[in-house]
Predict the structure of non-specific serine/threonine protein kinase.
Amino acid sequence: MHFSSLRQKSEFREIIPYSKGEILTNSTHPSSYYVTWFHVVFSAASTISIKIDGVKDFTYEEMKLATNNFNVSTQVGQGGYGKVYKGILADGTVVAIKRAQEGSLQGEKEFLTEIELLSRVHHRNLVSLIGYCDDEGEQMLVYEFMSNHTLRDQLSGKSKEPLSFAMRLKIALGSAKGILYLHTEADPPIFHRDIKASNILLDSKLTAKVADFGLSRLAPVPDMEGAVAAHVSTVVRGTPGYLDPEYFLTHKLTDKSDVYSIGVVFLELLTGMQPISHGKNIVREVTVAYSSGMIFSVIDERMGSYPSDCVEKFLSLALKCCQEETDARPSMAEVVRQLESIWLMMPQSDTKTTESSDKDPEIAVTSQPSSSIVKNPYVSSDVSGSELVSGVVPTITPR
Ligand SMILES: Nc1ncnc2c1ncn2[C@@H]1O[C@H](COP(=O)(O)OP(=O)(O)OP(=O)(O)O)[C@@H](O)[C@H]1O
Ligand SMILES: [Mg+2]
């Protein structure tokens, strides 16, 4: 049975229990409610079990009202999945509504995968899923709205003020923390598979939030011996320019594929270039400049003055992430540690990125070194996603 056909029939809310589980609903809300968990049958041949917790199920009518009947003036973008609208819910919450287009390549299965994944991952550097709509033959995803658009938009010069180096470093650190959380704290771990500048969104305070888990696959779970078999897939997913060359060749997905992609994003942050432009590849271009000692020739002039030692270290880290060989790339934990150590090297005057940057958890580091300059970038104790967001670790006041 088809999911949407199930949903269209009133029996959907009454199927209790289903053979492999049950549907529990809170029917106190007349038009929408929270689904505790349920099982969905796709076809006679396949059964998909989805657990959804705390994610709101919107009606088509509610989506229509939020967007003034999907008025073109509320449209903020378009991606492979479909159009994206800015909506205002009945309670005043501003949201981004992703409306699946007919014949969208990302089908029903990805729709449900995204809901399921997002409903159980929560981190300040990941875009929150507020709810979804599967009604009247339509599918939509409802996210928190990011008023400063995507990192790609910011780097393309669409915003009035170009990002300073400190802001770029902060965005890099936030994005890395979000991905680290997916790799180390999500259970089972999640590899994003489509990290790119247009999937890093910025909120009103320019806090970076990683978006779009529709392409994610759950990472393999270790077997009895503790060995983790690399995920082998027949289909390579991702975006040209960001795609890990080893994953492309072998179809083996590892955490280092996301490391490669975020490395490309770091290069974009430093140079303002696109991953591929006029037939040139950003990794190759920056590698050539680096090898010939010309790194400052590729740095984005729009960021104004910057501490050259920090820029050099950030660029060297970005290139390490983009090594062809998987093993030569750092892990996300190492990436976060190194970015933190670069942050600590910044002159204090440069690190006032927001009004309350001293209290900004974005730049709270994982351990407090005795000196404000970290000599060894690996001094931090073991980094994990939860430590990074707990707020327990004190913020370092930069020198
Ligand atoms: N949560 C959000 N808040 C504000 N704007 C958003 C949000 N999500 C998406 N957008 C806007 O919608 C646009 C399209 O997003 P979408 O994820 O559909 O496509 P994409 O990331 O550009 O490409 P792809 O289809 O490969 O994912 C984005 O570029 C952004 O401008
Ligand atoms: Mg996207």
